[in-house]
Amino acid sequence: MSKGIYVVVEQRSGKVQNVGLELIGEATRLKEDLKDDVVAVLLGSEIEGEVEKLYHYGADKVILVDHPFLKEYVTEPYTKAVTAIIKEYDPEIMLFGASSIGRDVAPRVASRVKTGLVADCTGLRMAKTEEEIAKEEAMGCPDGKRALLMTRPAFGGNIMATLMCPRTKPQMATVRPGVMKRADKDTSRKGELIQFAVDFTDADMNVEIMEVVKSEKKSVDLTEAKLIVSGGRGIGSAQGFDMIRDVADALGAEVGSSRACVDAGWIEKDRQVGQTGKTVRPELYMACGISGAIQHVAGMEGSELIISINKNDTAAIFDVSDLGIVGDVKVILPKLADAIRKYKAAKASN
Fold first, then answer.
1. What's the mean pLDDT in 115-142?
2. What is the mean pLDDT of residues 258-275?
3. Using CA atoms, how far apart are residues 279 and 288, in angstroms rounded to an integer?
4. pLDDT band at 143 (very low <50, low <70, confident <90, very high)
5. pLDDT exceeds cutoff 70 at 144
6. Which residues of 135-145 are buried (b: 16+ CB within 10 A; e: fewer)?
7. Angle at 153 between CA 148 and CA 156, to 5 degrees
8. Which of 177, 273, 279, 283 is nearest to 232 (CA)?
9. 44 forms bridges with which residues in the sheet?
10. Which of 56, 168, 235, 342 suits a disulfide with 115, CB 3.0-4.6 Å?
């Protein structure tokens, strides 16, 4: 019988990435219903120093594959390692981050072990209602209570579809970074370390990495940002983002956007927040000229404090806002940026 909730934890330059810790947190919540261990799968080279962190965030066990071929991500060695782990341990569920690495390796692994894969999920839960359990059992799942329901946007984000894959194991999904919440860190937690050896050959390393060049990013990834100022259709044009950037600069925040602005070519795709963009959980999210369509709200409603500015006093964005300002963003934003800078200057002089 398949057992265990496995999370493939990404590492870059020998450091565990946040998406892996988020998935471990989600796995611990699924564990409440499934009553299985949470197992982190860590691939890398000379990376054992990161193992304790995985216990602290909820992993019961860590399967470590330590090999020089795994120092940097290469498709074939990573695929072979994860496939070997599945064949050895037969997990019930296996989760990957929907990052460039997860989106590359997960479908290859699914193909090799002949199971399904639901990509780009924004929600996971176990079947609970009698109707859900009966449906799963009718589809071939021997125990409907162990069926994973995986939710993702469909038709361009206009609907949310819940999918299932009960006939084959493991039940696999890639999950967007920033969607799930990390568990609180508990440094007292301990776990079991399993050193797993994979029989790599030179033929497995079918790509030669000549050099790793790290680009210096001026902006922080939105999923990591603590403060975000986002613009929507209400700012009027690409030039309207100059006001957004000015407020963001005054606050020390990152710039975000609704899908409408990206589709219009006003700003880059990596700034998009929402179902078809990035899911964020900053301490402050400021929505400027954003109507509040469900596709956008789904990507930012987990923010700690939401402040919205919109000239339409019935805009849906106010329904999820902690503070709403009714007015023209083109008038309010320049004054807001000026007020923030004056406040900071006065505070610094005291």
1. 78
2. 92
3. 17
4. low
5. no
6. bbbeeebeebe
7. 155
8. 273
9. 66
10. 168
* Entry pTM: 0.75
The answer to whether the beta carbons of residues 282 and 225 sit under 8 Å apart is yes
Angle of CA points 8, 80, 9, to nearest 5°:
10
Token digits of residue 234: 């209400």
Please report, for residues 11, 22, 101, the alpha-carbon distance to residue 17 in angstroms, rounded to integers and kept in the order given: 5, 9, 11
In angstroms, what CA-CA distances link 213 with 12, 13, 70, 204, 217? Answer: 13, 12, 17, 23, 12
Helices 75-89/100-113 angle, 10° precision: 50
Q: How far apart are CA 287 and CA 333, in angstroms?
A: 11
Mean pLDDT, range 296-318, rounded to an integer: 93
More confidently predicted of 160 and 335? 335
One-letter amino acid identity for 27? A
| Structure-token match 């963003």, residue found | 329
Of the candidates 321, 265, 336, the residue with the CA atom closest to the CA atom of residue 291: 321
